[in-house]
Amino acid sequence: MKYTKIIILMFLIFTLLGCTEKSKEFPKENDFTISSSVSNMSPKVGEEITINTKLINKTEQNFDVQRGPKLILVQYRKIEDPVDLIIEGPGYQDTIWANNEYANIETIKIEEPGKYKINITASFSIKMKNEYKNYRINSEKLIVEVG
Q1: Cα angle at 128 between 62 and 140, to 5 degrees?
Q2: How many domains does one find in the chain?
Q3: What is the pTM of this model?
Q4: Which CATH number is 60's domain given?
Q5: Cα separation values, 4 from 8, 13, 14, 15, Å
Q6: Would 52 be classed as within a structural domain?
Q7: Average of pLDDT values for 102-122?
């Protein structure tokens, strides 16, 4: 009887420990979001524009990631240019903490009049169980008209 109680107690302890372990599955893309704001949507030629961005991890998990030179990349191009540029660079290691925001502030000057699309992208890879999954999180479309 004494051994039965010990075995039941050990079973309960292992069950409780197993239930508290966090998920080891890859997060979904919608577990991350980017929010952004632009200081002036109609600047004059050569006027500074400040772009505030945040990458938000909405999960309860920390993730070790590989990323390019920046976790959040801000780029702009004329609307009529056909290709969105994405610059990948050498791998950097970082941690995206649970329920956290990563802020980025960039200032740009556009020297020619026209309509410009501002691309804001977070590009990174998460490694779990010796496998990698790539993520590319984009903000909503931002159009700035420079006059």
Answers
A1: 60
A2: 1
A3: 0.74
A4: 2.60.40.2360
A5: 6, 14, 15, 16
A6: yes
A7: 93
